Structure formats: structure tokens, C-alpha cells
Amino acid sequence: MMIVERSAESINILQxxxxxxxxxxxxxxxxxxxxxxxxxxxxKVSLAKDKVTDVILFGSFFRRILExxxxxxxxxxxxxxxxxxxxxxxxxxxxxxxxxxxxSRDDLFTQASLIRPFPDLNKPWxxxxxxxxxxxxxxxxxxxxxxxxQKLFSPELRLALQGDFHDDVDSMWDREGQVSYKNYLxxxxxxxxxxxxxxxxxxSHDYPWQKDHTVNPVFASFSHFSAEDFGVSVALARxxxxxxxxxxxxGQSDVYGESVIKISAHSIPEPWESLHSLxxxxxxxxxxxxxRWGEKSEKIIFxxxxxxxxxxxxxxxxxxxxxxxxxxxxxxxFCGDGKLDNFFKKExxxxxxxxxxxLFSAPLNSDKYLLIVTHDMEPDAGGIAxxxxxxxxxxxHYAHKENLSVQFIxxxxxxxxxxxxxxxxxxxxxxxxxxxxxxxxxxxxxxxxALSCPLYVFNSEDQDRIHEDLVAQIFxxxxxxIVTNKKELSTFPLGKNPSTYLQAVxxxxxxxxxxxxxxxxxxxxxxxxxYCPNSISQRxxxxxxxxxxxxxxxxELSALSFSGIFSFHFYNxxxxxxxxxxxxxxxxxxxxxxxxxxxxxxxxxTLEKFRQLTTAGIHLIKATRHEEVRSLPxxxxxxxxxxxxxxxxxxxxxxxxxxxxxxxxxxxxTSITSNLPCYIPSSMIVVTSDGNILSCYEDFAEKLILxxxxxxxxxxxxxxxxxxxxxxxxxxxxxxxxxxxxxxxxSRIFPIR
Length: 753
Prior knowledge:
Layout: H1 8-24, E1 33-35, E2 53-56, H2 61-66, E3 76-80, H3 83-91, E4 100-102, H4 105-108, E5 125-130, H5 139-152, E6 157-162, H6 181-191, E7 199-201, E8 217-221, H7 232-239, E9 244-248, E10 260-264, H8 275-291, H9 312-325, H10 330-334, H11 347-360, E11 369-374, H12 384-402, E12 405-410, H13 411-416, H14 418-421, E13 426-431, H15 438-448, E14 455-457, H16 468-476, H17 487-490, H18 498-509, E15 516-519, H19 547-559, E16 565-567, H20 580-590, E17 595-600, H21 607-616, E18 620-625, H22 634-637, H23 643-646, E19 649-653, E20 684-687, E21 692-694, E22 705-708, H24 714-718, H25 721-731, H26 739-743
Helix pairs in contact: 5-8, 8-12
């Protein structure tokens, strides 16, 4: 899969440190075997068969787990060196938190008590990289950033790269290697102007290489190598009190203290990008580093545990979880040649690496930022090579002036981060390209997603470049424009001002009839989550919706030819209903064109119940692993599902929930936006177990009852003057007219939970 960091020096240093760590900590079980899958010394190690083996996973951990069926022992404990590695193992392989032990960098290396400050930019200083000089380490960015630091801010800066050259590549990034990586870097150096030309130093094979540089050294690494699980060179530099500039990626994310600048991995150029794009982003990164000169990074405390003992069967289950979850087989993975390299050039491989990348990088920060989407599926689509420089330069100018962060994201990672975008301070989303496949995504973002910021799409079909003055004019206007000759896109309303945007969207989203019906078939719940009103508010006495009222609801919806979403949920656990299966069957027969969703905490969801529900008519089960719930029944049976069955269930963690104050009942979420339009009442109704008709899922306390199904029809209630007036006021932002809405802080203004 990934290129393993085979530097014997680094691996030997780590191995020696870890052996000492285990000897000094008797609680870890010093009588156990120690085994390092990445070490070439393994074949010389004699393992006592009657003892537990402590397996220490290094950078090639992803592949080593796939190979674990060949390990020469049965009982083991697994250890890793970074929370990033642990995230990948738990999320992709399905390991439980307590099954992976974490050895922190503080356990292995002693950081100097007094770190030197970043040097005076007017005096000589050296930016150093030491380690494996290969495409896996993103040294192009090191050179280009150093060039702009020297050219714009610090003419006395020297650049030094120390280590052995290697031409191997990181297969996960799907980057073609150069014939000679050293020649490639030298061509980049030759193309740029320097006051002091960068130098390549022979590797210092003696341990204290970091003592060689005495001219105000600063260690810098912009690596997003897929096996960057620790960073021995960084640790050695910190022992000597060096300031550091690092990508916030993998094990480098764990470095903390004075004189630490971390750069989001999403802002760092990708290895396959053109030199033109590299220069644009390198200039931005140099200016970003200077703005943050002198920063420090707070220490993050990660929980450490003694991992539980696993056996060969447990490892087999984890491998099968990974393979089945992603519809793979081992033949696909190794492509018949014993290597993973070719697999990661295929679509399945790219999809897995997208998940891997998401877990291995530090989360995006919560500061205001601009997001530029890059097309990783088709790098040259829509003239992106010509568009990126102009638009990126413009956005850098805007970001520098407004002190905003500029970040770049792959288009497929964009879809994975949609939940984050609802909570982040996103200033604008930019697509500097156009392809036909982009149309449905723009449709979704503009019509069905609460994106309260401008969205820009640029097209270069009729011109090689978009001139900067034209783009600047667009960005100065109050309204955003789509620069394209595609009629499919030109009709979508976009606005620089969120209220302008939302008012325009009203024409798209507002309809004559609701498209979502949520039904409280029972009002019980077997959880009391802190972010749910059930935790602090007394529900009415246990009650089920009357079957006669349920049949009346279905009859009326059938007469309306309802084809929207019908769900069995309103702060209740529907699996507590004794006749849920029969009720789903009734709804499915009455409303053949509708889609049926079921929200559940999944504590009662067995494999048998899942299949009964989907057979009865449920299209999608949305399960949530709520707080304090460590395991669910589906953790056991999910791997038994077919691909079709897996498409019928979604599992999210409590951290992914859109937590709001539920109309002012709880102290959660962001500040209240009193004039923000809301289209939830224009698209849905809620039917409570008493037959009350509500306009919004936030109305836990039932403050805004529009009518009751016992005495009125749905159409009468929906078309009543009171309901129409309420919807019209909400779509124009008049929340203060209603007590519930004036207290509500839900900024997700469409009915998407």
C-alpha cells in the first residue's frame, strides 16, 4: 500500500526508545514479547509462545493489519504512536478504542524545557529538513515556501535538506515518480531566484545530526505522507529546542509547545499538482507562516489505556470488517502482485484513501476560512490548470486583507465534510472549474442544503483564463454570479449576503404542500441524552398514537398522492412501539410512492428486526450511537449485511449530530440568529401522539400547534390562515413574531436533520 519509511536509523531509534519504555513501565507487562512488524530484525527475534506479544505498529500499520494473518503468534496487544493512527484503525478496521494502546511522544522523547523562539527575520537563519529525501515528503513545497520566505521577508534565510535520496512514491497519492527525484528538485531550484541557493547535505548517520546546524535552525516538514505516524526527526529537533513548522498531519499533529507553527494539510499543495499551482500556494503559505511567526501550540491530552488482549480470530474479524464494509476482497487489494500500490490507483482504492486521509489529518479549525474545491477525479477538467492560479491569487489577496484562512479540498472530501460546513465559519465555497457531473452537486448545495455563504462556479470553456479584474468585479458585487454558459447552472440563485441567498432560494424550496411528514407513533425513549430535551423535561405520560388516527393520516396522505419522506420519529424511540412492523406495512401499502425513514438509537435494533423493517417497507434506517453508548448490536451483525442492505442503514456518532437548543430548552449550539429565514415549516409537518400538528421538529414543547388531526384534515390545517401566515413570516426572517422561533438557534434552515 504505502511506501514504508525504511530508514534503518529512524526505525532503530524508535525501537530502542520503545524497548526502554516497556522496561521502565512494569504495569505494561515487561515479561511480554515485543514485536515490530516494520523492523527488519523480526526474523531474528525469538518469541515465547506462552506469552502475550506486544505488537508496535509504525507507519505501515494499514498494510500490517491486512498481513496479520501471517503473524507468528496468537495472543497479542496492539500499540500505535499517534491518535491519527488510532482513528484510522477504529473507523476503517472497526477496532474498539480499548483494543488499541497509545504510546505518546512524551513517553519516548524528552522535549527541551526551554524552546528557542523563532529567529529574527533580518538575521541569518536556516530552514532544515532532515530525513528521507523522496516524493513522499513533499519537498517541492519545502523549496517553494522557502523561496518566497527568502524573497519576500528574509533574504538571509538558508535552506538545507539532509538525507539520502529515494525515488519511491506514496501509492496512496497516485503520483507518478520522477526518473530522478533529486534532478526534479534541482530543476525547481534552477527555475527560481535565490539570494542563498538551497543545499543538499549528505546524511549524518551519527545519531546527533540535529546538533550540526548552529545558524538559528528551524525544522520544517510539509509532509502529508500516508505513513507519517510519528516523525523521529521532529522529535530529535525538539530535544535540541528547535522551533518547528509542520503540516498538521498524522503524527506531526501531536507536536506541541512554544515555537510551533502548524499548517493545515488541506492548505498544502498535493503531490500531483502543477508547478504553477505549487507556486501560487507556496506564496500563500509563506505569507501565512509570517503572520503566525512566534506561535505556540497547546498540548492535547489523549487518553492512554492498556489495550485488551486480542487473538488471531479477533484480527481475522477486523480484516473481514474492513474488506466487507468496503465491498472488497483480498485479490482486489493486492492485485495479484503482493503489493497494494496498484490498488490505490483504482476507484475503490481512491475511495478508501479519501476516508483514510480524512481520519489521518487534524480537523479543520473553526476560524473563518475560504474553501477552494479541487477536482481530484479529473485534474484537468474544465481548464482547472488555467483557472486555479487566477482565482487562488485573488482569494489570497482577499484572505490576507480580511485575515481569513484559505483552504483547498478534494471534491470527494467535500461531500464527507457537509456536516462540518453547517457548523463552521465558511465565508465562501469556490469551484474553479466546470464539468457536467458538477451540476447535481451544485443543485444539492443550492437547493437542498443550508449553505449560508456564497458559492462560486467558474467555467473556462470559451476562454483560456478568467482575468483577475473580471473575477474581482464579481467578488465586489453584493450578489454572486456563476461565470458559465451552461443554462442548467445559470438559473440557480446565489448571493453574497446570506439573507439575499436565502430569499432567492425560497422560490425554489417553497411549495404548495409539505414534502416531509414526521409521526410520533409513541412518545417513549430509552435514552436521556444531554443534548435532547428528554434529559431535562418531563414528557407527557406514556402514550401511543391511536390506530384509528394513524389510519386517518394514511388515508388523507394517500388521497394527496404523497410521495415525500415519511418517518416514525419525534424525540421518541420507535423501536419501543409493540406494533412497529405492522404500522410500517400499513404505511407502505397506503403510500407506495413515499420513502420511509426510521430514526433510532439502535440499542434495540437486532439483525432480525432490521430485516423485518426493510422488508415491511423502510427505505433508510438512520441510527445514532449516542453518548455513553460504547457498543450496539449492529456492531456485531453489520458485517453480515449485503451491499444492498448496507445502503439501507446509516450510522452516525453523537459528535455528528446537529446540536441545537431545541427552541430555547437547552443551552447548546451557536448564538441565536433572530432574522435568519427558515423554510422548515414550508416543507414539513409533525404529527404528535395526541394528533397535534406541529410545523417543526424543534418544537419539543408543542408551543406552536397548528391544529389537531382528530377534528381537522391535514389540508384544512395546512391551508389555514394561521399556518400560511406563519410560513410566510418565517421565510422572510420574522422569527421574533413567535416565541419558539425567537429562541431557536437552528441555522439549518431546511428540514435536514
